[in-house]
Write a structure and sequence with these properties.
This protein is of the alpha/beta class. It is 56% helix and 13% strand. The structure holds thymidine-5'-diphosphate. Thymidine-5'-diphosphate binds next to helix 4.
């Protein structure tokens, strides 16, 4: 079972992932948690370049670095864990590139989807929780931004709309969760969706 979490920065993915970890512990299920960009030694090095480099980077170069990190993660961590029957929890995956680079950086949503398939050997999460918050909430929750988060309100609004569009197009995989509620209510919505696919866990 492969579960990913998506959303604009500050949507509360981290808290929900820790609730999911506790839940999986309680039912005795083994799992791994991976984060993007990063999750492998090479990926963490790429993460530094992507999020904290002072050098200018083009949209295409940025996309290819995210994809390089993802390709390594799939090969080194995700596929082996799935083969061993573990649950894989990903803090961001393919949909982040579609939303941030495809839509936000205007590289093209379809182009990025194709490149994602190439990088991931076509694997997709079984279920993706997109935690939706208004862009204004981001600034209240996350005062210290990295390079991508500094793009501003219009950029994040484009990213948010791209996520909502993807969720509309793939309703069986991408579940929209209202992230403006308190963290426990958000978790209840996630758990209720998970219980519908519990046999998969
Ligand atoms: P991170 O500090 O991990 O933020 P968060 O806690 O919000 O996940 O930073 C990841 C940043 O990289 C975030 O601004 C989203 C961006 N990103 C992309 O632009 N494209 C991608 O493919 C991925 C995985 C992340």
């Amino acid at each position: 079972m492969f579960i990913s979490f998506e959303g604009i920065d500050g949507c509360g993915k981290g808290t929900q992932i820790s609730y999911l970890e506790k839940y999986l512990d309680s039912i005795g299920k083994t799992y791994i948690v991976v984060r993007e960009p990063g999750g492998t030694e090479i990926g963490e090095t790429i993460r530094e370049v992507l999020l904290h480099s002072k050098f200018a980077i083009t949209g295409k170069a940025e996309l290819l670095l995210f994809l390089a990190s993802r390709a390594q993660l799939v090969h080194e961590k995700i596929l082996p864990a799935l083969k061993e029957g573990k649950v894989v929890i990903a803090d961001r995956f393919i949909d982040s590139s579609v939303a941030y680079q495809g839509a936000g950086r205007k590289i093209g949503v379809e182009e990025v989807k194709k490149l994602n398939s190439f990088a991931t050997e076509n694997i997709k999460p079984d279920i993706t929780f997109y935690i939706d918050i208004p862009v204004s909430a981001f600034y209240q929750r996350k005062p210290f931004a990295d390079r991508i988060e500094c793009e501003g309100t219009a950029f994040l609004e484009t990213v948010r709309q791209a996520y909502l569009k993807m969720a509309h197009e793939e309703p069986n995989r991408i579940i929209v969760i209202d992230g403006s509620k308190n963290t426990e209510d958000v978790w209840k919505s996630i758990l209720s969706h998970l219980s519908q696919v519990r046999d998969l866990i």
